[in-house]
Specification:
Largest sheet: none
Helix content: 55-70%
Distance between the termini: 12 Å
Number of helices: 9
Strand content: under 5%
CATH class of the largest domain: Mainly Alpha
CATH topology of the largest domain: Rna Polymerase Sigma Factor, Chain: A
Number of domains: 2
CATH superfamily of the largest domain: RNA polymerase sigma factor, region 2, helix turn helix motif
């Protein structure tokens, strides 16, 4: 299960984001480097889960932060800066896959909405494979998912972003995200059960 999140007043976080953006736009020394340092982990997660190629990921992360710098005046502080940056990263990764003609999402299955709505928001995929070897198998199984499903799982379970925030990043409806998460866990269960006897709920 997820550990209780540290509660941060959203208005304070947004205010801090606005101050950082203002510092970057004012050309204060080290401001943009701080922005990159604060958000490069999430940017890497988004792009790496989409493209699964370290060299491409490095190049696309650089492209994403270049776009962030170029478009920073468009940030209005209406939502978290990390979500805005992650949205840029997601867009860059999607364009890269489209150029390579790599499908972003896998085929839909026949799961009805009743199953999707019963999906547990408290599932911790890491708990399903606690030791080092099993954790490696888990991440290998995640790598076999389509790019979109890999990314949604990472944002939700590893970066611990709420579904509403993931919706802002990807432009997908919350119900669509829940459906992808449900299908992803179903696929992971099928991949992991033969070797681990693991049931990913």
């Amino acid at each position: 299960m997820r550990e209780p999140a540290i509660v941060v007043d959203p208005s304070e976080a947004i205010a801090a984001d606005r101050r950082l953006v203002a510092s970057v736009l004012a050309g204060e020394p080290g401001a943009f480097e701080r922005l990159v340092r604060d958000h490069q982990g999430l940017c890497w997660h988004v792009i790496d889960r989409m493209v699964r190629h370290p060299d491409d990921t490095r190049e696309l992360c650089q492209e994403a932060f270049l776009r962030v710098h170029q478009a920073l005046r468009q940030y209005r502080g209406e939502r978290a800066l990390k979500s805005w940056i992650a949205q840029v990263a997601y867009s860059v990764a999607c364009r890269h896959l489209e150029k390579k003609r790599i499908p972003i999402a896998g085929p839909a299955d026949d799961d009805g909405p009743d199953l999707v709505e019963r999906m547990s928001d408290g599932v911790d995929l890491e708990d399903a494979a606690a030791d080092h070897e099993a954790c490696g198998l888990l991440h290998a199984a995640i790598a076999r998912l389509p790019p979109l499903q890999r990314t949604l799982l990472t944002l939700y379970h590893l970066d611990e972003l709420p579904i509403g925030e993931i919706s802002q990043i990807t432009g997908l409806a919350e119900g669509t995200i829940k459906s992808h998460l449900f299908r992803s866990r179903k696929r992971l269960r099928a991949l992991l059960e033969p070797s681990l006897g693991v049931f990913v709920a």
